[in-house]
Amino acid sequence: MQNPATTAFVSDFAELPATASHGPLRIEYRWVNEAAGNAPIAVFLHEGLGSVAMWRDWPQALCERLGMRGLVYSRPGYGLSTPREHAVKWPVDFMTAQARDILPALFGVLDIDMQARKRMWVIGHSDGGSIALLYAALHPDALAGAVVIAPHIFVEDLSVESIAQTKALYETTDLRSKLSRYHSDVDSAFYGWNDIWLNAAFREWRIVDELAAIKQALLAVQGHDDNYGTMAQIDTIGERVPHAQLVKLDACGHSPHRDAPDALNEAIAAFISRQRR
């Protein structure tokens, strides 16, 4: 049953059958800018504490600008999707599993065929940006290009310090109450993300070597004032993917779609426009 406080939007749900890598999953999703008809699809991959509702109206506004349809969904453990069981810990390679298994399975259930996937763009923020990079590397023939916003490709001290501070805020301030508007099981969502990022084993996580497999168009965006990652993240992307375009935004933190939406939308629209010529 949908919690009316969780989202201002009406969501649909996709049922993913159990596989060797996961049990049956109920995935919350929403189409935006459906008036675009048979236009290419932009798939939005949310941050570590994100969900369908937490994107607010940015995907709709961007898709209208791009002339695309948009698919927004909540990963398992977030929003109104199947919650993470509280005793279950995300594995170190949890983002790879999302790109390799969950996302293609969702496309299959939603009848997004290979022809549509070849025209598709993946747009990911933070953890979602990392998943977008992994999807582009694992499925090079199943997309037109990727846009990654404040992605992580290795773990920095800054990231761990900020995530530890966020845990303190969650447990001592009204942050938990605020996040509960976006997740049906807010503790499941928060601790699934927080626990893995603060796990000592996760300090060794990195996807730098995987980047070389990315062949399609790639735009990487980072804010100069991001407290969850430094410019080393997208600079390394530029080194490993020479055809990637990098955009560095002034007066912008970890969430460019909230901190600097006009500059971000302009950069994405200009980049995608050039790929269509």
Relevant terms:
277 residues; alpha/beta; Rossmann fold; 8-stranded mixed sheet; globular; Alpha/beta hydrolase; AB_hydrolase_1
Describe the protein in words.
α1 (58-66) runs parallel beside α10 and α2 packs across α4. Mean pLDDT is 95; it is low at 1-7. Strands 1-2-4-3-5-6-7-8 form an 8-stranded mixed β-sheet, with helices on both faces. The protein has one domain (12-276): Alpha/Beta hydrolase fold, catalytic domain (Rossmann fold, 3-Layer(aba) Sandwich), CATH 3.40.50. The chain has helices at residues 58-66, 94-109, 114-118, 127-138, 157-172, 175-179, 186-197, 232-240, 256-259, 261-276, and strands at 12-16, 25-32, 41-45, 69-73, 121-125, 145-149, 217-223, 245-249. It contains 10 helices and 8 strands. The protein is an alpha/beta fold. The longest helix has 16 residues, at 94-109. InterPro entries: AB_hydrolase_1, AB_hydrolase_fold. It holds the Pfam family Abhydrolase_6. This is Alpha/beta hydrolase. Residues 43-267 form the AB hydrolase-1 domain. GO terms for molecular function: hydrolase activity.
Briefly summarize what is shown.
The protein has helices spanning 58-66, 94-109, 114-118, 127-138, 157-172, 175-179, 186-197, 232-240, 256-259, 261-276, and strands at 12-16, 25-32, 41-45, 69-73, 121-125, 145-149, 217-223, 245-249.
